Amino acid sequence: MDVQGTVESGFEKVADAFRANFTEQGDVGAAFALHVDGELVVDLRGGVADRSTAAPYTDRTLQLVYSTTKGIAAICIGMLVDRGLIDLGAPVAQYWPEFGAEGKEAITVAQMMSHQAGIPAVDVKLTLDEVLAVDPMVEALAAQAPLWEPGTKHGYHAITYGWLVGELVRRIDGRRINQFLQEEICGPLGVEFWIGLPESEDERVAPLLTAAPPTDPEELQLMFAVAGPGTLGARALFLDGLFAPGTGAGFNSTDVHRTEMPAANGITTAHSLSRIYAATVAEVDGVRLLSPETVDAMRAEQVNAPDACLVATTRFGAGFMLHGELPPLLGDGSFGHAGAGGSLGYADPETGVGYGYVMNQMGGGIAGDPRTITLNDAVRACL
Predict the structure, then answer these.
(1) Which of the residues 52, 67, 114, 200 is marked catalytic?
(2) Starting from the edge strand earliest in sequence, which strands make up the sheet with 63-64, in order?
(3) Ramachandran bin of 84, using left for φ above 0, alpha for ψ from -120 to 50, beta for the remaining angles
(4) 67 noted as active-site residue
(5) Measured between alpha carbons, how far is 371 from 359 in angstroms, rounded to an integer?
(6) pTM assigned to the model
(7) pLDDT (tens digit, 9 = 90+) per residue, 192-214?
(8) Which terminus of the chain has a smaller tally of CB atoms within 10 A, N or C?
(9) Which of 196, 154, 102 is nearest to 317 (CA)?
(10) Cα–Cα distance between 40 and 355 in angstroms, integer?
(11) How does pLDDT run across 68-114, given as a tens digit for each residue?
């Protein structure tokens, strides 16, 4: 496997792990980057970006990262916390009055961001065009009655989380979330992360390759428990069928790339993902995105219990996944977010790590992806 990029002395094991993901774990095209204390120490990419053209995976290749987007949306909220514009303990309706309908008036920002609000889906039937237009979906979420009593349990708001957070950013700051992201994060850091890809960048995106269906009976049973017909997980993950596998709303579609779906359609590079997370825990070329106090507030555990949508136990802070089985990060203090199929971005304040892994070949598990587990182990060994 021809791997391109740079590795600082002492991090050779990470490069070995990255290469092994191609030879042992089925990677097709992928990239990985690691920052420590604000400095880039690993920046690698390899394989094929597009099988139809045999185009190589390069430092210009862009990748859709599914729910890894959620962590970046959470960082946007964290920046508003730092500016004193939002309080994690305040009701969402304080900033977005319409949200208080149907018994949602007491839901706090932290509860909403930790999947406790009870609105992983909406009962009103929207067309795909309405969903991609964003505003009809935001209005439907504001009018929706919770599917459980808010705060009594949590269930992964797989797609709705993004519109909830995006509207909160707009109500408080006045800018839509992609504009905020470009002007407040990507511009200052010199990185690329879009929640709404410009047409000019379409040709750089590596198409996602779907995972083979599981053959192990236990894996099949778990898959049906999570997302089988009639499950809450299916409603949340596929938005009542609009984004179900085999539909026209695939995430390789430019229509999906173009909309603002801050839970699932972020498009970026591993280098950018790592650099953003690095800037939440250290200065990166003079830029720091979050204060230590806000980092601590947002990585404070909000929930740690069986998930009403994903069935398995999940552990969340305010918008961030925390270290656990789903997914394993570097250690107990780490915070970030994984995406369907295997992408992962996180930071670890104790070691100063900013971590980013992206790929086009999706894995099929819902817990930790073996490729990122291998990379985590190598990073830990080098540190």
Answers:
(1) 67
(2) 63-64, 267-268, 193-194
(3) left
(4) yes
(5) 10
(6) 0.97
(7) 999 999 999 999 999 999 988 77
(8) N
(9) 154
(10) 10
(11) 999 999 999 999 999 999 999 999 999 999 999 999 999 999 999 99
